[in-house]
Design a protein that fits this description.
This protein is of the alpha+beta class. It has one domain: Ribosomal protein L22/L17 (Ribosomal Protein L22, Chain A, Alpha-Beta Complex), CATH 3.90.470. The chain contains three helices and five strands; from the N terminus they run βαααββββ. A hairpin with a 5-residue loop joins strand 3 and strand 4. It is found in: Plastid, Chloroplast. Keywords: Chloroplast, Plastid, Ribonucleoprotein, Ribosomal protein, RNA-binding, rRNA-binding. Part of the 50S ribosomal subunit. InterPro entries: Ribosomal_uL22 (IPR001063), Ribosomal_uL22_bac/chlpt-type (IPR005727), Ribosomal_uL22_bac/org-type (IPR047867), Ribosomal_uL22_CS (IPR018260), Ribosomal_uL22_sf (IPR036394).
């Protein structure tokens, strides 16, 4: 019997450009849980806080729902997709209106327990 070793957390409609969030997510993909939290606390980008909350939430899901240890978790998959864009008009001089676009994104963080998988290579931790 093969046991499911993955848990995930979704963040939808986060008010941020997907391009800016991908810049942070690319830095944490494949890293361990503790290392990811340290990296996200020290990075100076605005995207770090919602991603930090998602990683923390996914780890809480892993420990509460599946009884995984937080020390054995790695980020197996992290992706950012574009969400809807809210379009508004800002009034300008002479009765004109300039468009304002507020982008949003959807972030998915998947954690994997490496103690339950035999094929994981421990040299890369």
């Amino acid at each position: 019997m093969k046991r499911n070793t993955q848990v995930y957390a979704l963040g939808q409609r986060i008010s941020m450009s997907a391009h800016k969030a991908r810049k942070v997510v690319d830095q944490i993909r494949g890293r361990s849980y503790e290392e990811t939290l340290m990296i996200l606390e020290l990075m100076p980008y605005r995207a770090c806080y919602p991603i930090f909350k998602l990683v923390y939430s996914a780890a809480a899901n892993a420990s509460h729902n599946r009884d995984f240890k937080k020390g054995n978790l790695i980020i197996s998959k992290a992706e950012v997709n574009e969400g809807t864009t809210v379009k508004k008009l800002k009034p300008r001089a002479r009765g004109r209106g300039y468009p304002i676009k507020r982008p949003s994104c959807h972030i998915t963080i998947v954690l994997k327990d490496i103690s339950l998988t035999e094929e994981y290579d421990y040299r890369y931790l």
